[in-house]
Amino acid sequence: MNLIYDEMELTDLEDVPEPDLLKAITAAYRTRTYLSGAATTVVAEANGQVVGVAFGYPGEREDAVDDVFAQITAKSAAFDVPFEAQSETAKGEWYLDSLAVSPDHQGKGIGHQLLRALPYYARRDNQAVIGLNVDLENPAAMRLYERMGYEVSGKQMIGDHHYYHMQLEIGQRAKVAN
């Protein structure tokens, strides 16, 4: 997940030492909010090791999710100010905030498997659309999302990068039993 933060080149995080950023990210992913509260974390494993992760939530829960990281960074001396995330979601969608696969396991279908699992969680959360942002400078990820049926619905600036906002219609909203 640290790779994602590095690639986004967020100016608010550039002076934070990498070990401190990793500590904050790890602390966030250990919270109930990130694991199965307001958000959902889906992992792919190989030989007992996590090799991929997808992290998302219904767009209306974005503030609750972002507040977790802001609270963690507020308690850390490594952050001059609490990290304030920009809004990334579109109204009425289940938002795939992050998708990451270990460099040693890329190209083995793990990202594809994680993406195939997401409609279950979106429907469980009563959402009919999955949205995500992909960096214009990441054509490999763009091709993966397009192969999975995602379509560009707009452009967005996050930090200093331009992103395509992509969406996938997954059908009628229907509650899924837990």
UniProtKB/TrEMBL annotation:
SUPFAM superfamilies: Acyl-CoA N-acyltransferases (Nat) (SSF55729). One of its GO terms (molecular function) is acyltransferase activity, transferring groups other than amino-acyl groups. Keywords: Acyltransferase, Transferase. InterPro entries: Acyl_CoA_acyltransferase, GNAT_dom. The keyword tRNA processing does not apply. It comes from the Bacteria. It holds the Pfam family Acetyltransf_1. Residues 3-171 form the N-acetyltransferase domain. This is Acetyltransferase. It comes from Levilactobacillus hammesii DSM 16381.
